[in-house]
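TA notes. Do not distribute before section.
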Amino acid sequence: MNERCHEVHKVLDYVLQNRDRIAARICEETGKTLTDAVVSEILGVLDNLEWNIDNAPKILKDQTVHTPITLMGKKSRVYHESLGTVLVIAPWNYPFHIAMTFMISAFIAGTA
């Protein structure tokens, strides 16, 4: 988990360093204004990246849970594992935000 969070932090740094170039490309491809591209796409992605870095280790850690009486003597745990490939079918109106949000969430959960 820590390795994936570290890699997501690299993505965060990359988006921060290249936000002008990314915003310009969004404007070219979608016809959005620069302000709209920055506010609705770049800032949303940065917020999502930070949220994942801060919260994923807590959310995805293994948990010990109550064991039903019928399984007395056993221990119950919840652990998270990747289920495989992720497919995103999404509208075109927020291409960078939607793509990055789904890709980062899948990656941080263990789907490479």
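Switch to the second chain here.
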Amino acid sequence: MLAEHRQPSVFIVAENAGCSRAGEVARPLRYFLGLRKRGFDAHLLCHERNKEQLEIDFPEHRDAMHFTPDTLLQRCCYKLSQRLPEKLSQVTTSALSWLLTQRAQRRWLRMRLRELGPAIVHQTPPISPRLPSMIYKIKAPVIIGPLNGDMNYPKEFWLREKSSLLGLEKLIRLLARPINRTYRGKLDANVLLYSNERTRVVLPKGYHGEAHPLVANAVDPEFWSPRPKPSTNECIRFVSLGRLVRFKAIDLLLQAFAKVREQRPAELEIIGGGCERKSLEQLCAQLGITQHVRFTGWLTEEDCRERLSQSDVFVFPSLREAGGAAVIEAMSMELPVIVTNWGGPAEYVSPEAGIRLDVAPRDEFITGLTTAMLRLAESAELRREMGQCGRRRILKHYDWAQRLDRLEEIYANVSADWQEALARRGATA
């Protein structure tokens, strides 16, 4: 806490916040609630579309939650985004809506901060290091992040994305530098938080503040605690959790699972929803595994925890994952994990805590995934050892309480520096 200066109010700024499974939506809410539990005068500022559900879920914090209005243009952007491919909507309609929200948030902060004493503004999403921020010149120190991203497909899987969308993405990356010079939030921020070295090297050139490492994902190990596992039997329960979109590679998981089924009894549960569900269900029918695969759809955190507790192995073959919060949730519950040795999951999982699949051409990758699933299916002792190692790794590196401890330190330092700078200006005025 602050020793010499009054503890500042903290404004957590995001477009969307809620109890959704999506990390970018859940994370700002967790910061807000965690800080208030620790006694901070924390506030949440997000878009009006979140208001109804947040006030239902957290009526005790209603006075500390603030919302910018939903405009006609944003409603049009939302309707259009539902008809576009996800990647295209992210860089067009969704990006425009986000800029409009930020403009309204900046106006709101500049008016509200005049009424307060010391304050800190912490903008959490979007986590992309390239997307611009409009939160600047608001007469309060600004912290942005943790940022994470700049992920590409491994070269073996470039063709999984339409070439037109890849071309659009490259264009957006080329435009990132001039856009960030126009909307200077990241260049002028007091602190940029980055998740890993991959993200640090693509931070906007010429930023004036400090840059500190802070991993984007963390879990509450008390909530995601080890649960009694199913009694050992011949039928192994595999589980995967995440959006059903192309880069998650669930189609490759299904093909590997079909090969596993040829050699031993097994079941697979897929938790999550998305645009790929129908095609994945059709693939199950083609592979003859429909009766052994369960598509659960979206679940609450409590229900996800329950489903994981009834599983033996967590499989996450995503090919373009900057983070992967579901992986550390599974590890926290002492589930052995299988992940692609690429991006965020490869950083979370040590060789003792799970199996990291090296990227290979499609058929080789499926064979490697099959082999990894069979290896864990055939050894209860290996599953137990990897699960326990994973839990220890979570407690050491990815505990949510440790994340808040570090944020408190950053807030204290930033606030002290800001107050000292104001004092120097006053002395020389």
